[in-house]
Amino acid sequence: MVTEQNKSKRGRDILTFLASVAGIILLNVLAANYFFRLDLTEDKRYTIAPVTKQMLGNLQQEVVVDVYLEGDFPAGFKRLQQSVRETLDEFRIYAGGNLRYNFIDPTEITDEQQRNEFYTSLAQKGIMPTNLRATEDGKQVERLVFPGAVVRYNGKEAAVNLLKGNLAASSDERLNQSVEGVEYELASAIRKLAFQGGKIIGYIEGHGELEQLQVADLVGSLGEYYRVARGELAQLPMASLEKLDLIIVAKPVRAFSEADKYKIDQFIMKGGKAVFFVDPMNANMDSVGAGGMFALPYNLNLDDLLFRYGLRLNPNLIMDLNSGFIPLVTGYMGDKPQTEMVNWRFYPLLNNFSEHPITRNLDAVYSRFVSTIDTVKAEGIRKTPLVYTSTYSRIMEAPVPLTLEEARMEVNPQQYQAGKQPVGYLLEGKFTSLFRNRRAPEGVDDAQVQEQGVETKIAVFSDGDLVRNDVNPRTGQAYELGFDRFNNVTFANKELALNTIHYLLDAEGLINVRSKEIALRPLDKVRVREEKTYWQLLNLVAPIVLLGVFGVARYYLRKRKYERF
Description:
Blueprint: H1 4-33, H2 50-57, E1 63-67, H3 75-94, E2 99-103, H4 112-125, E3 130-136, E4 139-145, E5 148-153, E6 156-161, H5 171-180, H6 182-194, E7 200-205, H7 216-222, E8 227-232, H8 238-241, E9 246-250, H9 258-269, E10 273-277, E11 281-282, H10 285-289, E12 293-297, H11 303-309, E13 311-313, E14 316-320, E15 323-333, E16 336-350, E17 352-353, E18 365-366, E19 373-375, E20 381-388, E21 393-397, E22 400-402, H12 405-408, E23 422-432, E24 452-461, E25 483-484, E26 489-490, H13 493-505, H14 523-563
Parallel strand pairs: 1-2, 7-8, 7-9, 9-10, 10-24
Antiparallel strand pairs: 1-5, 3-4, 5-6, 11-12, 12-22, 13-19, 14-21, 15-16, 16-18, 17-20, 20-23, 23-24, 25-26
Helix pairs in contact: 1-14, 3-5
């Protein structure tokens, strides 16, 4: 006979069973209709940034990525290969079917002529080979590796260099830096092809700035992302200037008028961005090679403007033991001069960077006649140093004697104890106008002074040559920015300039993806940690499944018990 108490227990068990079944059904419905992914790794290596997800979700056509990292590689390159594959798998999910990729091994082409032609075509696209040395069966072998990819979209294509990082780091560290940069490099290429921005950059002229051929590579590279216009500041009305999103001031040698400074100041007050590549000192190798010179400060009439914004460019030059090389005649064989590459300590190699997204994992930057920068009080302005000289630097106050004999002199290490010196700064905040409590100067068409600015950003570097590309004297063609033609080495000058401008203009924050940090671990430790994430995921799901099983079992056990009465 079934009592009222047993009926009550049976009712509760039935409700528990139904609730468990309903919970399992609800979980399945949610899983089927709502997309979610869990990244349980400690460094979130599988997590794609929200800005990248949004960009991929807005693709209107298919993106095709050909990756040339296919083959049997050592552990470090396998890790990079796997990272690229995993990142593209994530991209494909968020792109909603508008992305596919192929891994290609260029060395599989059996015909030698076709293989060499293919190698050449990759090099012309910007994917340069790396000679990889490894030990196989106790023997040293060499293998040509192309650590790059080509991204295609709507008839356009862009090459992606996947082997990034600082050459001064160990091979393992550099490969890890490359892994950290995979998402940004691929996402940046997709954005360049599919979402070319409508923002406008103005290259300021009229004060002896670098000529068109001297910035050809920078302007051409910027043109892949933005619209670039050139114009003399004195002839630009304020209304035209305000249509720009960013201005570049690159190595002026003549003074700015008060009207010109007013235009720059009011442009910044109204939210415009600016990058200054300014030489405080007048120094050039043509005069040095002709018998020597004294480097003296330029009179650019920009000191008060930059001082108001929070910086002072000092009238000095930095010598650095970590420096570039120049060809120097060291003797003659008959009537033929014999040249050697010697250190020119006025050309510091900048290889100390902050952890900011602009400079993170950046390779060395080549500078010429660079000066120190001091910060001064500027209310509400955040000042971030970006680039430093090495710790073995020396500061030479103006006037600085410059002669090639300096390159021949024996170095006294005691003179190079100034420590690392910042030579590039990022300034962010609401700037105060230089013309606060002052009248607008004569010659401007908008005399209404905005004394307090809106939130904006500017960057200042104390070397105008950071963005100057050399020119081939025979062909008249511009070399790549950062290419040292005497030593056949390419430095990261272009990457520094592009990263800076991307950061200033990137309202969506894609440049911040460069901050991604992945801990460097041995390959077997990585495998163990990834296996642990599967157990962690199982630990999340298992209680729900066990609850359902327990509810079902309890119901049937109770049911059998009731049926015996």
